[in-house]
Amino acid sequence: MVQVLLAGATGNQGVRTARALVARGAAVRALVRPGTPAAAIEHLRAIGAAPVIAAYDDAPALRRSMEGAAVVVSAVSGLAPVIVDAQTRLLEAAVAAGVPRFIPSDYSIDYTALPAGRNRNFDLRRTFRARLNAAPIRATSIFNGAFADMLAGEMPLIVRPLRRVLYWGSADQPFALTTRDDTAAFTAAAALDEQAPRDLHIAGTEATARSIAALMRELSGRRYRPLRAGSVNGLERLSRLVRRVAPQKQAVFPAWQGMQYMRDMFDGRAPSAPIDNDRYPDMSWTDLREVLRAGA
């Protein structure tokens, strides 16, 4: 049985990844920090994971938690103290424990194809990626585009009262959308794949504003149309303005960060084609109709 150390196991994506790893037969050690609520720890046990308590600043404890593991999978979420600092400690512990592989908490658009300095959260991942690339360990990043689940409300592209789908630039610009569960399932498969390459790209669906409007029309029986909200450069300027007015420096996903993400979705430089969807033939992909049906 393959031993996997999962960091960030109590978070939204972490719990899904723990469940997917257990479903694939992995022995999952779920790293939890001291002080984690008992209910969260019991939930991990109920899933089938084995909670292991260790603080990120306790190097010996981190190293012990990873001994014998074949891969460290990170699903942590946060800003620099988490994405850069905590993951660096995880990486150092993995190297010290002789763990052969590491999957970082990317789960995003392929930021390596985009210019540095334009998206704060991508820049944090870029900083850690450089450290990971320099370490004596094999790494695999999962790039899934945006989480399709966010179309249900967190990502304000679909304006249901007006029956419009917003876009910037072109209504026919394709972008990748993958559900959180599908991303977790693919991550679990990659974690157990000793030959997984440095980068894997997936897309539960490749959508455009126009195709989303057509799906909403199909599901609701009402006419939905794409609505151009401006240019991609205009969205960039708006994100800068909102950042100045409401910086929310300690928020992981403030309004201006969401604008940066949507700008990069419509930018056209990040690959969106499902290049590696067929790598694990037993994978099934959630139809975007299922995501949109509830709110149609």
- Our measurement of the CA-to-CA distance between the termini, rounded to an integer number of angstroms, reads 43 Å
Tally the beta strands: 14
CATH topology term of the largest domain: Rossmann fold
Low-confidence stretches: none
Architecture overview:
- The protein has 2 domains: 3-141 and 179-201, Rossmann fold, CATH 3.40.50.720; 147-176 and 205-272 and 281-293, Alpha-Beta Complex (UDP-galactose 4-epimerase, domain 1), CATH 3.90.25.
- Helices cover 41% and strands 18% of the residues.
- It is built from 10 helices and 14 strands.
- The protein has helices at residues 12-23, 38-47, 59-66, 80-97, 120-134, 180-191, 209-220, 232-245, 255-267, 288-293, and strands spanning 3-7, 27-32, 50-53, 71-74, 101-103, 138-139, 141-143, 146-147, 158-159, 164-168, 175-178, 199-201, 205-207, 225-230.
- The strands form 4 sheets. The chain has a 6-stranded parallel β-sheet with strand order 3-2-1-4-5-6, with helices on both faces. The chain has a 3-stranded mixed β-sheet with strand order 8-11-13. Strands 9-10-14 form a 3-stranded mixed β-sheet.
- Helix 8 runs antiparallel to helix 9 (255-267).
- 41% of the residues are buried.
- The mean pLDDT is 95.
- Residues 4-223 form the NmrA-like domain.
- GO terms for molecular function: oxidoreductase activity.
- This is NmrA family protein.
- Keywords: NADP, Oxidoreductase.
